[in-house]
Amino acid sequence: MAGAVARRLDAGFFARSALDGARDLIGCVFLLDGVGGRIVETEAYREHDPCCHAFRGRTPRNSTLFGPPGFLYVYFVYGIHFCCTIVCEPEGAAAGVLLRALEPLQGLERMAARRGTSDPRLLCSGPGRLAQALGVGREHDGLTVQEGSASVYPREGAKPRVLATPRIGVGGDERPWRFVDADSRFLSRPLPRALRS
DNA sequence: CCAGTGATTCTCT
DNA sequence: GAGAATCACTGGC
Q1: Beta-ladder partners of A73
Q2: Which among A169, A182, A154 has a CA at the least distance from the CA of A21?
Q3: Labelling A86: which of A25, A35, A65, A184 has CA 20 to 30 A away?
Q4: Quick one: three-class SS letters along A143-166?
């Protein structure tokens, strides 16, 4: 690959099931304005899924989810945090992949300044932390990842060992729609004991 | 463990 | 249009 510029993931990658997208994004690299890292934890949210923001229909807040795939859906939760989702599935399906944790690779100083810590394991390990470290805000809602400042690049090297677990914080829904790189030290919480290697 | 934070949406008028 | 309930979490005990 010497001299070659890595090619971004294109719309085709995101125009599939959010479950496949969430699984295959593990190991890919997410960047915003040159800051980001390797995706190690994701969750899928799908149409007809009570946990999905789109479940109760379209509102001004969630309208990006109803648009075409390959765009960022950014929203504010708990009065404190932003979260960053990539819209998946063909337009109208209202599904997406929540980015929950990155292994920081680029722009570490800017992340540390925004987060108030330089501990690499506290920079992007959790959806709110990730958004804060990358400077994600309301203005990024509706931004494409296919060109411009937000981008996703295919993984390089060995395929990570991906495990599926129930999603975090969705009360009682046990569907294994959270995906993690089982060997990453940068997850938002440790793997259940039963799944550790 | 659990308090805090505030936008969004729901449920009445 | 107002008041209440909800919420894909974090940080400090």
Answers
A1: A85
A2: A154
A3: A184
A4: CECCCCCEEEECCCCCCCCEEEEC
CA distance A36 to A101: 10
| Residues close to nucleic acid strand C (C-beta < 7 A) | A 43, 45, 51-54, 65, 73, 75, 77-81, 83, 85, 96, 98, 115, 122, 126-130, 167-171, 188
Q: What's the pLDDT at A195?
A: 75
What pLDDT was estimated at residue A12?
Answer: 95
What percent of chain A is predicted at pLDDT more than 90? 80
Q: Which two tokens stand for residue A141?
A: 């809602």
Taking the CA of residue A116 and the C1' sugar atom of nucleotide C11, their distance in angstroms comes to: 12
Residue A173 — pLDDT band, cuts 50, 70, 90? confident
Q: What is the pLDDT of residue A191?
A: 82
Q: Which residues touch strand B (CB under 7 A)?
A: A 56-57, 59-62, 75-80
Q: How many angstroms separate the CA atoms of A60 and A75, rounded?
A: 11
Interatomic distance A100 CA / B8 C1' (Å): 22
Q: What nucleotide is nearest A60 when CA is compared to C1'?
A: B8
Mean pLDDT of A87-102: 94
